[in-house]
Every structure is written in structure tokens, then in C-alpha cells.
UniProtKB/TrEMBL annotation:
Keywords: ATP-binding, Nucleotide-binding. The lineage of its organism: Bacteria, Pseudomonadati, Pseudomonadota, Alphaproteobacteria, Acetobacterales. CDD domains: AAA. It comes from Rhodovarius crocodyli. Pfam families: AAA_3 (PF07726), AAA_lid_2 (PF17863). PANTHER family: MAGNESIUM-CHELATASE SUBUNIT CHLD, MOXR FAMILY PROTEIN. This is MoxR family ATPase. Signal peptide: none annotated. The keyword Nucleotide-binding applies. InterPro entries: AAA+_ATPase, ATPase_AAA-3, CbbQ/NirQ/NorQ/GpvN, ChlI/MoxR_AAA_lid, P-loop_NTPase. GO terms for molecular function: ATP binding; ATP hydrolysis activity.
Length: 337
């Protein structure tokens, strides 16, 4: 009996390794296709792809003109997903995202309501400049991001699978923006900071995007392929030292169990259990994206900032003293590195 169990476990491990190898090859092609269009943002491409592999949603933060919208459009093509785009503006209403009921009259004079689905009924929703809409409109996405469904008119409707929200956000300091509430921020698996490209990448970009033809990405995956990859991510084993590192990192970022006195005095609030779950999934996805069968502590360190940054807040005195969230996360990473 023991021998049979061992053989079955070995067969299962070999099957998972074979599947992981095939998916890793596909992910190499995904990176190549996206890289043909998006130049000089390799780290951003990796983090966004890792988020989608984890089954989560991503918030892209950066000033206008850095290619955030283009990245989302390109990923929709490469991953073979049905995509919709919503431009968030101050006058946007929840019904403009979720849909609304209209009163129709039949030929016999009978009237009835018919629900017209909004753009949220897709596989990849691009919420462009999400922080330009009012908090009321922003909150329309809460249930769909968490549960993959929406409740309208007393009826609950499931969204297509897979379902991902890729939102872009301009810095809060810019005019005409509304800060996202904490509950909304926590729904995003990663907050990815999009920075200016270096000079070499910008030179390449100038030559590639101002000629007669621009590079076009082609589909590599389908929705079913992506869901198979997401299922595999959840099956990858996680070593004990990685689990310990995740717990130490997340728990150390909370004021009541902070890793140091400086952290405790600087933090108004910290990440909840959802942050640990996000980090666990993201480290697995990063390992698969890199062609590995199990995550390492290096994956935890690499993903600590995009997972934790939007789930922590500074006290007033810490802000006055010039303390930054990034510096606190660096201190936390040093405790596990």
C-alpha cells in the first residue's frame, strides 16, 4: 500500500513538473510578445503578469504618458482575453460600469424590465485613471473584484472567468483625483509603480514608435490556458522558510506586532491576512514565471513592496518626519533577507 502511494505521488509530481514546464514556455512567449510593444518596463511586465497568474487584480500607478494603458491593451491581446475599457471621470456613475435596467414595451403593450450588461461583464476590465471618479463609483467594483459577481435589482450575476481588473492611477497629488478607500486598495493584489524608462530604453522607444509601422503583439494564451496556469500556481509547493518569511514580513508591518519600535511608532495601520494570502500566491506565480517549481525567500523580498505598499499607512508624525512607506518596507525586508 505504501509503495502504491509513493508511486502515485511520484507520478503526480512528474505530471505537475511537465505541466509547469509547458506553461513556463508559454510565459516566455508572453513576455516576448509584450516586450515587443512595451519597451524598458521589464519589471512592470513581470509584476503585472504575476498578478494575473495569481488570479488577482493590479493597480498601476504612475504619471501620464508612461504606457500604462498600452500595457493593459497589449496584455489583453497576448493573453487572449475579452477586454473592455472604462475611462473613469468625475461624472461616471456605477451603472456606467455595472449596467442598468431599462423598461421595454412589447407589441401587445406589456411592459417589462430588461437588464443591459455594463462593461464589467468581460474577462479583463481596464479601469483607466480610476482615481478620477468619485468614491461612490469606485466602490461599484468592490463586489466584482472580490467575488467575481455583481448583485443588481435583487439578482446576482456571475462575471466571465477569468476576471481581472487592471486599473491605472495618476499620483494623488495631481489635480482632480480622489484617493481610493482602504477597502478598495486591499482588493488589488499588487500595486505596481510605473517609473520613467532609462535613456537607452527611451531611445529605443523613440525609434520603434515614431516610424511608419509599430510592433504588434499576437495572442499566445487563451482564457482556458490562463485558468489552467492559475490552477497550477495554487498547486505549487511552498517551502516552510518561505511561509515563515511571509508571516514575519506581514505581521511585522502591523502596529501592534511591529518588527521594531520605529515601525510601531510610524504605522497608523498595516496589512491584514489578505496581504499574506496575496504574497503567498504571488511568490508561487513569480516562481512559475521564472521557470521554477517552488518559490524562494528571494521571491518574497522581490514582491514585498508591491504587495504591502498600498496596505500600510503612516502616522501624521511619521509623515512630518519624512518617513516613507518604502523605507519601512526596506527595514522589514532586512529582517528576512
Amino acid at each position: 500500500m505504501g509503495e502504491r502511494t509513493d508511486v502515485a505521488a511520484m507520478d503526480q509530481a512528474m505530471e505537475m513538473a511537465s505541466q509547469a514546464e509547458a506553461i513556463a514556455d508559454q510565459l516566455v512567449r508572453v513576455r516576448e510578445e509584450v516586450g515587443k510593444v512595451i519597451l524598458g518596463q521589464e519589471g512592470v511586465i513581470e509584476q503585472v503578469t504575476v498578478t494575473i497568474l495569481s488570479g488577482g487584480h493590479v493597480l498601476l500607478v504612475g504619471v501620464p504618458g508612461l504606457g500604462k494603458t498600452k500595457l493593459v491593451e497589449t496584455l489583453a491581446v497576448v493573453l487572449g482575453l475579452d477586454a473592455r475599457r472604462v475611462q473613469f471621470t468625475p461624472d461616471l456613475m456605477p451603472a456606467d460600469i455595472l449596467g442598468s435596467e431599462v423598461l421595454e414595451e412589447a407589441a401587445d403593450g406589456r411592459r417589462s424590465f430588461r437588464f443591459i450588461k455594463g462593461p464589467v461583464f468581460c474577462q479583463l476590465l481596464m479601469a483607466d485613471e480610476i482615481n478620477r471618479a468619485s468614491p461612490r463609483t469606485q466602490s461599484a467594483l468592490l463586489q466584482s473584484m472580490q467575488e467575481g459577481r455583481v448583485a443588481i435589482g435583487g439578482e446576482v450575476m456571475a462575471l466571465p472567468r477569468p476576471f481581472h481588473v487592471l486599473a491605472t492611477q495618476n499620483p494623488i497629488e495631481q489635480e482632480g483625483t480622489y484617493p481610493l478607500p482602504e477597502a478598495q486598495l486591499d482588493r488589488f493584489l499588487l500595486e505596481v509603480e510605473v517609473r520613467y524608462p532609462d535613456e537607452a530604453a527611451e531611445r529605443q522607444m523613440l525609434l520603434a514608435t515614431t516610424g511608419a509601422q509599430e510592433a504588434q503583439a499576437v495572442p499566445v494564451l487563451s482564457g482556458q490556458d490562463l485558468m489552467a496556469a492559475q490552477a497550477l500556481v495554487r498547486r505549487l509547493p511552498v517551502p516552510d522558510d518561505v511561509v515563515t518569511a511571509i508571516l514575519r514580513l506581514v505581521r511585522g508591518a502591523r502596529p501592534d506586532s511591529a518588527a521594531s519600535r520605529r515601525l510601531a511608532d510610524s504605522l497608523a495601520w498595516g496589512p491584514g491576512p489578505r496581504a499574506a494570502q496575496a504574497l503567498m500566491l504571488a511568490t508561487r506565480a513569480r516562481a512559475l514565471f521564472s521557470g521554477r517549481l517552488a518559490p524562494s525567500v528571494d521571491d518574497v523580498i522581490a514582491l514585498a513592496e508591491p504587495v504591502l505598499r498600498h496596505r500600510m499607512a503612516l502616522t501624521f508624525s511619521a509623515r512630518a518626519d519624512g518617513v516613507t512607506i518604502s523605507s519601512l518596507i526596506d527595514e522589514l525586508k532586512a529582517t528576512i533577507g
